[in-house]
Amino acid sequence: MNEALVLKKQSSLFTVELGDGKILSLGARNLKKDGIFVGDKVLLDEQNTISKTLPRKNLIIRPPVANIERMFITVAPIPKPDLLLVDKLIVFCFLNNITPILCINKFDLDEKTCKNIEKIYKKVIKTLVFSTFDESVTILRGQIKGVCVLAGQSAVGKSSIINALKKEVVARVDTFSKKVQRGKQTTRTVELYKFGKNKYLADTAGFSKLDENLLNIDERELKSYYPEFLKFAGSCKFKTCVHKGGKEFCGVQKAVEDGLISKERYENYLKLYENLKNLKKY
Ligand SMILES: Nc1nc2c(ncn2[C@@H]2O[C@H](COP(=O)(O)OP(=O)(O)OP(=O)(O)O)[C@@H](O)[C@H]2O)c(=O)[nH]1
Ligand SMILES: [Mg+2]
Ligand SMILES: [Zn+2]
Predict the structure, then answer these.
(1) Could you say which of 9, 12, 59, 66 has the lowest number of CB atoms within 10 Å?
(2) Distances (CA, A) of 178 to 44, 75, 155, 174, 205
(3) Domain span holding position 96
């Protein structure tokens, strides 16, 4: 039996890539087609129909993508950066066994804002700064490994990144003003684009917002998904410290005061903590 990777799904037709790089368009048999996702590794039978999906590393429902290795969380000076969304996406990645990488785009527009965002995140996760309008965007190429997805607010330039890397227009880009008028996202479907051996990148629109429900954790667990907190949590008086009881007892709050942990990250942590806590009430 042939193993294949699902690159695209259009109603009941699947575009898959075989081990030798050959691309096929085919259907599925004896399986609920709803149970096969972009990113799935599948087995094909003699008639070249999908007969089985192989076990997954992870599966995201909105947008529907399986086996995600890395998420490129994209922000830009314009539209106004939503850093709480960035923090939620980072937690989401850790919960789903995905490596988050921050991509700060549109460096050409506003260097200062880009540098400020970089300063906050470079201590937390791998952070890249670039512009899709020049060669700097190519630093992203080396970071593509396995199935990767682009995520982030609408109009930060996710489709532009794909286009710049592919040097040909494959994903649709709208002008910023048109987007704002329509108030809608340009990118709707998910498709994996190949950038080399075992290097795939998908443009997605589904992560432009992230409902706290998707994080599905107790607020007291949230602190474990803030890598930069862990170093200071050892000096908290109580092991159960959730880092909001006062700096006399809390190593993390002390570190925020001393400028060793970003204030923005910490304040958004408190917001997210409250959001998760409130979820349980309804
Ligand atoms: N100045 C500047 N503008 C950029 C850059 N990258 C993208 N843009 C512009 O930003 C706007 C939005 O780009 P898109 O690529 O459509 O954004 P998107 O993230 O795919 O948006 P959705 O599909 O709605 O989620 C377009 O007008 C792009 O030309 C950049 O590096 N610098
Ligand atoms: Mg797009
Ligand atoms: Zn603490």
Answers:
(1) 12
(2) 43, 19, 10, 7, 16
(3) 59-203
